[in-house]
């Protein structure tokens, strides 16, 4: 099933050169990471998907709705965004109220919103924090609150903006688990991110943006194999891939587990 189609997308801010230059893409259920250096157009692209900006040219269709003819409020029923900085997203004084706000805002009943919020809190491991003030929590926990607030909306598309910021190893593992669970229920998960190792571990498709265009698009192993093009976009391969290359392995390994599963590796 295709959730998003993008045809010859262009965008320019009122003053300045074109930021998005002729992008054509489609997205199904495959978890996808969009990577690229700062200024490549990733954040602008996400704002266009959410209807927060309107294209200068071309079209975007989200779950059958053309963003030119649909308000951002209407699109919120279909596409949710977890902000990079949770402090920019949280505004309630109680965790449960914060998580229920989005579901209520898109039309869920009080009972539905509460049930979905409590379930989302279980997903992120904060069930016991429902009555806490979000600003009494750590930055990592506040990030989980914002993730829960989007999960509770039950949108068909979830976008994570730099999900691993402020997360330790345990937090990253939890986010990976959330991404898997969302995928299992048929949700399209997108991320814009600079953490190449996390992309290798949690996503399947990788799209590289450079100067407002798509430089690479494919399965993560195919994309990460193109070291020269990645360097052109000021990106690096995952650390495990780089280490294996230094050790003389020609195959592309993206994670430690993948490397160790090779039957030719002698303990």
From TrEMBL:
SMART domains: AAA. Keywords: ATP-binding, Cell membrane, Membrane, Nucleotide-binding, Translocase, Transport. It is found in: Cell membrane. SUPFAM superfamilies: P-loop containing nucleoside triphosphate hydrolases. Gene3D superfamilies: P-loop containing nucleotide triphosphate hydrolases (3.40.50.300). It is a peripheral membrane protein. The keyword 4Fe-4S does not apply. Pfam families: ABC_tran (PF00005). GO terms for cellular component: ATP-binding cassette (ABC) transporter complex. GO terms for molecular function: ATP binding; ATP hydrolysis activity; ATPase-coupled transmembrane transporter activity. Residues 4-236 form the ABC transporter domain. It comes from the Bacteria. InterPro entries: AAA+_ATPase, ABC_transporter-like_ATP-bd, ABC_transpr_CbiO/EcfA_su, ECF_ABC_transporter_ATP-bd, P-loop_NTPase. Belongs to the ABC transporter superfamily. This is Abc transporter. The lineage of its organism: Bacteria, Bacillati, Bacillota, Negativicutes, Veillonellales.
């Amino acid at each position: 099933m295709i959730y998003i189609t993008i045809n010859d997308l262009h965008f320019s801010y009122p003053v300045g050169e074109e930021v998005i230059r002729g992008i054509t893409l489609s997205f199904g259920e495959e978890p996808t990471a969009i990577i690229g250096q700062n200024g490549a157009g990733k954040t602008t692209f996400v704002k266009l998907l959410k209807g927060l900006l309107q294209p200068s040219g071309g079209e975007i269709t989200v779950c059958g709705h053309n963003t030119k003819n649909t308000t951002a409020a209407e699109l919120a029923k279909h596409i949710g965004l977890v902000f990079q900085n949770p402090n920019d997203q949280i505004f309630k004084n109680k965790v449960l109220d914060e998580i229920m706000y989005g579901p209520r805002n898109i039309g869920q009943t009080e009972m539905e919103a509460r049930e979905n919020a409590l379930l989302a809190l279980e997903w992120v491991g904060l069930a016991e924090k429902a009555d806490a003030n979000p600003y009494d929590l750590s930055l990592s926990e506040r990030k989980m609150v914002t993730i829960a607030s989007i999960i509770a909306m039950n949108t068909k598309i979830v976008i994570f903006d730099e999900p691993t910021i402020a997360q330790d190893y345990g937090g990253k593992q939890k986010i990976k688990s959330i991404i898997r669970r969302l995928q299992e229920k048929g949700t399209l998960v997108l991320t814009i991110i600079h953490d190449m190792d996390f992309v290798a571990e949690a996503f399947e498709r990788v799209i590289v943006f450079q100067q407002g265009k798509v430089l690479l698009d494919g399965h993560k192993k195919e994309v990460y194999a193109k070291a020269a093009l990645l360097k052109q976009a000021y990106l690096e391969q995952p650390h495990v891939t780089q280490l294996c290359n230094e050790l003389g392995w020609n195959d592309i390994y993206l994670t430690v587990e993948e490397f160790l599963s090779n039957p030719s590796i002698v303990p």
